[in-house]
Amino acid sequence: MKIPVVAPLVAALLLAAGIATGSVDAADAPADDESPPSGRYLLMDANGRAVTNADFPGQFQLIAFGYTYCPDICPTTLVEAAAILKQLGDRAERVQPIFITVDPQRDTPQVLATYTAYFHPRIIGLTGSASLIDRAAQNFNARYRKVTEPGAPADRYHVDHSAGMYLLGPDGSYIRKFGYSTPAAEIAERIDALLSETHKADPTWSAPPPR
Ligand SMILES: [Cu+2]
C-alpha cells in the first residue's frame, strides 16, 4: 500500500516545484496596472554624453539593469552578454549591449566603464539621476529596491533588481525580455533570426562605427 501514499506525495512535490517556478515567472510578468514596456530611456554614458533608446538606429540593443557591487546576477548576465556577442560573430556589430546601473550613488561613470570593459569592450554602461533611472526602469517594467541591513553603514547596501535581458529593435522600440538563465546560445539564435529578417528588409544596411 506504499505506492498510493508515495504517488500523491510526488505529485505534491511536483506541484510545489511548479508553483515555485511559476512564482519566479510571475515576478517578472507585468502586473495588471502596468502598461506594456516602451523601452524608452534618457541616460548618460561614461563620457557624460546623453544617450537614448533612439540613438542606435539599425542596431538591436540588449539591455540589462544592475549594479557593479552585485555579487552574482550581474556578473553572470554580462558574461552571458559577451558569450552572445561571440556566438553572433560578424553580426555582433549589429547588437549593442547596454548595462544600466540602478545604483548611481556608487556606480560613477568611471566605475561603470571599468566594470563593463572587464566583461566585453563593446558593452556600454549608462547612468543618470535617480529619477531618470527610475523612469527608464519603469519603461521596461523592471524593478529595483535598495536594501540596507539594520545597523549597517549608509554605503553598505545591496540593490535587489529584476534580472534578465531586454531586447530593443533597430528602431529603438521594445521587442521582448529574455528571462534570467536563458542560455546565451538560445538568445544568440533568436537575435540571429531577427537580424536575418532585418537584413532581408534592408540588404544595404551596415552597422554604424563603434561609439
Ligand atoms: Cu545584479
TrEMBL record:
What is the superkingdom listed in this entry's lineage? Answer: Bacteria
Q: Name one Pfam family in it.
A: SCO1-SenC
Q: Which Gene3D superfamilies match?
A: Glutaredoxin
Q: Which GO terms describe its molecular function?
A: metal ion binding
Alphabetized, the UniProt keywords read: Copper, Disulfide bond, Metal-binding, Signal
Q: Which interval of the chain is the signal sequence?
A: 1-26
Any idea what this protein is called? Protein SCO1/2
Q: Which InterPro entries match?
A: SCO1/SenC, Thioredoxin-like_sf
* SUPFAM superfamilies per the UniProt record, alphabetical: Thioredoxin-like (SSF52833)
Please give the family membership noted in the entry: Belongs to the SCO1/2 family.
Positions bound to Cu cation? C70, C74, H161
Q: List the disulfide bonds.
A: C70-C74
Q: Does the keyword Aminoacyl-tRNA synthetase apply?
A: no
